[in-house]
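Our platform keeps sequence and structure together, in a single record for each protein. Such a record has a labelled line for the sequence and another for the backbone structure tokens. The tokens are whole numbers drawn from a learned vocabulary of local backbone shapes. The remainder of this section carries one protein's record, kept here as part of the documentation:
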Amino acid sequence: MVKYSYLVEELAPDTLDTTSINLEEASIIESFSVNSLISPEKNRVELSILTADQILLETIPDYRKYTAGILSAGAGKEGESTVTIDPETDAVELGYESGDVVLVYRFLNNLFSKGKFGGEFFISDISPDGTEILALSHQVVDEDIRNIAFKLKNELNTNSSFDSFYLAFGEERFSIGLNIDFQNTDKGVALAIKLYEGLPPGTSTNSVFTVESKVSRDKAFSINATPIFEEEQARSLQGPNFFIEEKYENNNPTEFFNYNELFSYPTTSSYYQLYSLFNEKSAQIAINHEDFSEFIHFSSVEERLRNFKYKLDLLHSYETNLGIIVSSSYTDYGITGSKEYYEGLIKGVVNNFDHYDRYLYYESSSYAWPKSGSANSRPYQNLPSDHPSASVWFNNIIESAYQYDSTNFDLLTNTIPSFIREDSNNEQYLMFVHMLAHHFDNLWVYFKSVSDKYDADNRLDFGISKDIVRSAIESFGINLYNSNQNIDNLFSMFIGERYNTGSEYITTMSIATSGSEHDYLQPMPKDNYEKEIYKRLYHNLPYLLKTKGTERGLRALITTFGIPDTLLSIKTFGGVNVNTRPFWGPAFFTTASSTEQIRLDNTGSIVSGSTLSKYTSIVKQKPRKYTDDQHVVEVGFNISKATNDFIDIHVTGSFDIDDYIGDPRTSRDYKYERLSVLGRTVTDDSYWWDDIFTLWEDANWDWDTLLAYTRSPKAFIRLLNFFDGSLFRLIKDFVPARAQVNTGVILDSHKLARSKAPQVLTSWTDETKSGSLRIGSYTGSQGGSYDSSGSYNYTTAYTQSIRTPKGRTTKILYDESAMFNGELSGSAVITTTGELNTENPFKQQAQPNITFDLTLFNLSLPLPPACIIALEATYQGEYFEIFATGSEGDAISGSIELTYPSTLGPSVSTLKFGHDYDTYEFFTVEAEVSYYGGVFQGWYLGPNTGSTLITTGSILTVYYEDELTKGNKYYAIFN
């Protein structure tokens, strides 16, 4: 958006008003002053906007955006004597922000109306020269015309109030009236008006006007705008943000599909189940469909079962016809009998399945519709309704449904009178009531499940809904993370499919189940697996929060994910007895060996003898027996474990890692050479990690015992695909904040691989250089400026007031040195640094600062009594800061400059300098406007005009006393 700087100039309204009396005639008219008040209820302000060429753009007949000044009311009268207008703001708000317009304000009083408007007349007759008219009115009664016209006539004749009035025709058309009277006509009382000159162009009989008088002199302003072009700032790329918290994000990539693979789904039962699931608009609540009372309250179980059987027969019919069309390669679309037609019919049925229909159709249990084939293989295939097994099942469950309906007193059809129910002609009405009851039952099950949020049942289909359990857990402040198990295809995620081996060669595959009685649930959909974990977390949440930060709490969290401690151990790293062999340094402890960290040998012995000596401690420091404890927790699969086990078998019991590392003589080396040699020769065959998986088959010992985890790093890391990765991220939230947590696949060096960096060696040289420069000697005199010959005896002696530590005193300069140096009393003395070789580059070269680190030994000894610390400082003068700024965020339109005792600047931002009051009594800074239109507001103690004002003059002089009261920062504010 373009910004403008505005220049507002007041114009003489006579230069714009075409209705004014010319100067020659005005000179013979008696002059007088008018003292009028503006009443907002009676008088109006008319605002006209014209171009610079006086072309009317817009007229606002009732301008109200003026404000009354303070104490502007007339003494004992109604109205305002002073009003304030803002032409610049009016031009911007009216849409003329680009300027080059003239605003004319007229302060008018409607003489024939009690308000601002009304009192309109129309011209009935015009004289030949156009200076006399008769006017009638439909708004002003005859009596008012006579009275007001008679009053105006007398006022014009007495010359005590005003000498003229105006006829306002609108759109900046005015005529000056010199005299007025009334005349009785056959059409009523008419106004007879004498005009100063002819009527304005475009005026004729029947033209409407009002009779106005001017309360105050017109005001005209020209508004000129100068655009302010802001300097375009080149956009640069932001640097990296290293503070983004990434632990809440989990971007798991999925496999890539082309267009056909992404949108081509097989028309199977799995697809129908997925399609029906995604069309469910609400959360899946936990419903036990084996108990009719859990989901049937108003409707009939029998009717819902028969309705499902009807839908099932429709689906079998559609699938049969669809199979015939597919086998015949029929390719027409959009007509009855096509493949697309039957697929649409099938979708229409499954899309309207309710929760009970989905249970009967997709689930496998004794209460669901009988399935064909293996009960453990998804997707399940429903038997046709005419199959013997299906007929037997249906008859049995219909019998159970009939018995339940007979005892259900809340059945909605019970509200229908018996004579209506028993009439066969009312079957359609009964069906309508069953449909209403079915609708209300679907609402009832959700209403009944509101309290299930507080039922922390860990089973998937019981207690709190599996769709809202995650939100319930997060409401307690627990962060949950997306699992890496949700990257499979939709059928595996929501329906459940066997593991997709892809290109892997797998001969045997086992599926872990919760028990043999749950075999029919396998394979479990990955979505249900993830939500079952949430249900377990919600069920165990009180214990997990109570034990948060402890090892048993961490073990409970891992067990909640179904991982035993034999598979995933918790390792904490603590101190190890330095006398144990082999000694590897700090080691880890698992749950089984954590008691080794309990140590009882931490006591010391008392020192005998004098205990008052400040050089003797009363507590004997015990020998250090244990290494330092470490705040490290490891819960994961360490790839170096197999190598470490291999090394433990082949090293001797006397091994001590301190014999190979920490030797000061190797501080400059890049590696521990002796330790590396030991690693290469730990076995006679010199096998190393790279050889462990490459020479697997050629080994002559039991690899499976030594390397129980894997044969290659790639296969080892692959194991993590079968674990829920969200566990490792959740573990970090359940350990103390100061602990360093290593989770997942842990890649670190084995025991004999220790990294080493050479110690940095520093050196320094103390060099002191000196030099001298030969300069010439000069002599001089006063050069005859003071004539001491004859009878005149000129002297330059004077008394100077100087500041001392004890206050001001006087100093008499009588050595006549002023004749030679020109430093007369009251003259300005320009001080310099005394440098005579300013252009010498070697003298101006900055030398680097040398920083020393001092180390003091024998701190227990007292400092020598004669130790003296001497500080030396040089006085550089008082420090001042002078700022140039804009008013209320405006652009800076001026500059500042130090003019005495030295010059500095000019500057449009800041001046910083020191001033020695012992030498100069004051200093002077000056503010100067830089370009036309800028205004200097004044000198302030703060960066805005709301702070303390010092002076509005452009020159500011600061004495020593000013610094004590006003500080050392001064602001020049422009606009």
